[in-house]
């Protein structure tokens, strides 16, 4: 029996971005993992689950160039027990690329430090529940570098059942 090849179909009207497999991304300085641990603790507190050791998994490294965007969509579960998404924008010089998150027809916009001029020299992040509709507005100048993490309940957590 042969194995069928699986291809990702790309519709440039929906999404236009370059992506690198997370297996090809590594952080050698322990300050990154230490900082991510602190951030994860803050995220747990903000999401109402303080004290829970959430699991965070790198899902993608994205590069948005001029014209890059992602139309309104909802995330699918990329890792077991995933319930939220963490977007970490690395220092990058660009215009556009704001993240819009929608909740009950209310749009929250995250500019990742563009208004304050900090996008080029500091990391910025946003967290949203995986089932929240969200979109990335088009980049019209420069390049935007982004790490996407799946936020998951720890494997030690009780299973949650919905009826």
TrEMBL record:
N-terminal signal peptide: none
All copies of domain Prolyl 4-hydroxylase alpha subunit Fe(2+) 2OG dioxygenase, residue ranges: 60-147
Superkingdom field: Eukaryota
Protein name in the entry: Prolyl 4-hydroxylase alpha subunit Fe(2+) 2OG dioxygenase domain-containing protein
